[in-house]
Amino acid sequence: MSYDTPKDRAPLPLLGAVPEVPVERADAARNRRLLLDTAQRLVREKGVRSLTMDELARRAGVGKGTVFRRFGTRSGLLVALLDHSEQKFQGAFLFGPPPLGPGAPPVRRLVAFGRARLLDIEVEGELHRAAELGEAEQRYRNPPYNVSRVHVTTLLREAGAPGDPRLLADALLAPLAAALVMHQLHDLGYTRDEIADNWETLARRASVPE
């Protein structure tokens, strides 16, 4: 699934996981996006352990020095990549085509949100899990979680869900935590489709008006 948003849309400035940085020149921004798109493909193909500065430089066709100047360290690259992935996901559910984006009924959008998030975790799970573990105490205060929480809360309100939609949103986001999903996939042997079908059942039940 691609989360690419229209090229003329400005980046989402406050939704990512890293601090705001000075505005980049257009060519520098394109080069950075090229490196991060390449890094994302590498992680999706071979896992996060395969993502080294050397391999990214080779795959992107640039010098290793370019990668180091852009991201500093591998840790800096991983933080930037998670932010890049989150902004693509956010762009898809805020501005993309339905059913994930605007234009579909709220329950369909809610179901599409969960399924898209699970696909992300299946292919980039180690990256998401590492981020969750590294920010355990701050997870529920960070911008990416709160953007998702506001989005799910809004869809629940639009669907006429009973109860407090903010608490329901937290309850529906909890099963999408990367650490839990990776445990279900790799330790318990469930498939992504099985996990997604179960999440859809929860989402639909939570959305039924009284």
Automatic annotation (TrEMBL):
Pfam families the UniProt entry points to: TetR_N (PF00440)
PANTHER family (UniProt xref): HTH-TYPE TRANSCRIPTIONAL REGULATOR RUTR (PTHR30055), POSSIBLE TRANSCRIPTIONAL REGULATORY PROTEIN (PROBABLY TETR-FAMILY) (PTHR30055:SF209)
Tagged with keyword DNA-binding: yes
Gene3D superfamilies assigned to the protein according to its UniProt record, in alphabetical order: Tetracycline Repressor, domain 2
Domain HTH tetR-type, first and last residues per copy: 29-89
DNA-binding region: 52-71
InterPro entries in the record: Homeodomain-like_sf, HTH-type_TetR-like_transc_reg, HTH_TetR
PROSITE patterns: HTH_TETR_2 (PS50977)
Record keywords: DNA-binding
Official protein name in the record: TetR/AcrR family transcriptional regulator
Domain of life assignment: Bacteria
